[in-house]
Write a structure and sequence with these properties.
With about 120 residues, the protein is mainly α. It has 5 helices and no strands. The protein has one domain.
């Protein structure tokens, strides 16, 4: 499972840089016209922050053998997809209903942090 978690982190890290660069170099006109540049930057930032959480989770598996750690990783991956993914879609389409999905992703990210905490104290 360690390798899967670390592979996920490397993919999300790569995508964070790629998507951030696309936003900075190719999407500024559309993001500015929709007034969504700050939202896009938030999506990239949160994706990148949680990429580091995935790295920590993967490396923690050396000394924490726990289903909670796996659950934390899954919640983190789903949280990134739902939180940042919904914000990316909101920014590119300007369809505000994508924003309804974002808090679900945020909740998953918070639960991921909590599950990691719980796996450490258990």
């Amino acid at each position: 499972m360690k390798k899967t978690i670390l592979l996920s982190a490397s993919i999300f890290g790569f995508l964070s840089v790629l998507i951030g660069a696309m936003g900075a170099h190719y999407l500024t006109d559309i993001l500015t016209s929709y007034n969504r540049l700050d939202t896009f930057e938030t999506a990239v930032r949160f994706q990148f922050y949680h990429t580091f959480l995935l790295l920590v989770l993967g490396l923690s598996s050396d000394f924490i053998a726990s289903k909670l750690l796996i659950l934390s990783s899954l919640l983190c991956v789903l949280g990134i997809i739902l939180f940042s993914g919904s914000l990316y879609l909101l920014c590119l389409t300007n369809l505000s209903w994508f924003g309804v999905i974002t808090p679900v992703g945020g909740l998953m990210l918070m639960l991921s942090w909590f599950m990691y905490f719980y796996s450490l104290v258990k």
